[in-house]
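Chapter summary example: a protein plus adenosine-5'-triphosphate.
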Amino acid sequence: MSPCDHPEQATRRALARRVDPRVAVVCVLAFVTVQAATPIEEWPRFVAYAGLLLIAVIASRVSLVWLLKRLALALPFVIAVAMSTLLVRPSADSAVRLPGTDLMVSGPLLILLASVAAKATLSIVALSLPVALWDFPVLVRALQALRIPRLFVMLIAFMWRYVYVLGDEARRMVQARDARSPRGRLVRRVLVVGSMAGSLFVRGYERAERVGQAMVARGYDGRLRLLVPLRRFRAADAAAVLVVAGALCAMRLA
Amino acid sequence: MNAIEVTNLHYTYPDGTHGLRGVSLCVPEGACLGMVGPNGAGKSTLLLHLNGILNGHGGVRVFGKPVHEDLQAARQIVGLVFQNPDDQLFMPTVFDDVAFGPLNLGWPEERVREAVTRALESVGLTGHGDRSPHHLSLGEQKRASIATVLVMDCRIVVFDEPTTGLDPRGRWEFIDLIRDLPATKIIATHDLDLVRELCDRVVVMDDGHLVAEGPAADVLADQELLEEHGLAKPLDG
Ligand SMILES: Nc1ncnc2c1ncn2[C@@H]1O[C@H](COP(=O)(O)OP(=O)(O)OP(=O)(O)O)[C@@H](O)[C@H]1O
Ligand SMILES: [Mg+2]
């Protein structure tokens, strides 16, 4: 399992890497906030957002496949809203006909669906760009430099490491189960998965305790120290800020 | 002077399991002590007391000072390599992990970088600093764990099963590395050959007790003792 496997080497030579990671993080957060605050009824703006994002994607040289994998994260939410759009019986005054079918669905829910799909897609693509461009410690350092609360930074840093450890553990448990009950009935398998989740939780908890011990054993006092030099602000950074800020303002005002 | 003095140490885990049932032990400065015993004997439990991670009943002194009087100081003196690398390596990259201890000690950046480079070199991981621990093989993770403690120049270094998972060459490299390490060393292991190579004294633990102690050559030659505590296959006949 590899929820965050590293993208190809191409991003190492990307234009976007000339920008300081701190600046990139700020730009991405600004982008995500602005588009999330835009009502979906003003849909031409979203075309513009997508255009801006496309430029960033090209400048980052990430591959389509890698992006699509990140996008799969949004799928459950979009499906949830889509289901409710189809299942909820629309009231008479809000019903609209689904184009090309006889299905009547609720207008407001349809709009909600479009909104969730558009905003989730834009946010996830934008947020995955820094992850594709820089190594993890560099981003952690950038978050620190931006005065993001320490607890939050630590949370992200440890999630990154232990998502693999717990993922491996879960895989080993599944393998052990399959080795002993190759083709059990579905109900049984579901029950086994339930108890596995429980024991995974306990193992995760015990692991956290031991990791905590290992940290204090090496003098940890609650402050995460990393050795990643911070660069000086450069022309590329100013350019990135100006382009993103300018574009976002123009799109909001237009 | 004794680097470590343990007197009548008892420890019960929160679930009621007895980890230690009265252990006393002295390790003179500069010694290399082997600690052997079957699974569940209490070796790891004892080691976790040496820098105050567990706190049982009884006394643990490091260079004459009770560990719990000044935990921070004790932890600078006693470096502990955990049995499982997944517990020891918690940072996003190997470099960050090895640098973790020195940075916590407040060393300046230049010194940290030099020390990390040297430590990675000594365990044969030069050039692996940028990799994530989860992309290393088990043996490489073991070496990285060892580096995270070597880097701190501790006066006492404690290893919990350092060679499990290492290939034969890695095992010999570890033995050479440890032999030259200018520190008091305590090694818990199931690898009797390693003990024979490295240790001057050996203690045997079983069921939370210290059941034997003596020069390595004598203890390891005592076939009856080894058999009784599951450390050797009984001879036929
Ligand atoms: N976190 C824990 N909670 C409860 N009991 C524990 C815990 N850790 C260890 N024990 C128990 O304490 C006893 C001593 O365990 P310890 O890990 O010290 O043995 P060990 O000598 O290191 O064994 P091994 O050679 O398998 O590493 C065992 O009976 C074990 O089951
Ligand atoms: Mg152990």
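Key point: The domain at 2-228 of chain B is CATH 3.40.50.300 (Rossmann fold).
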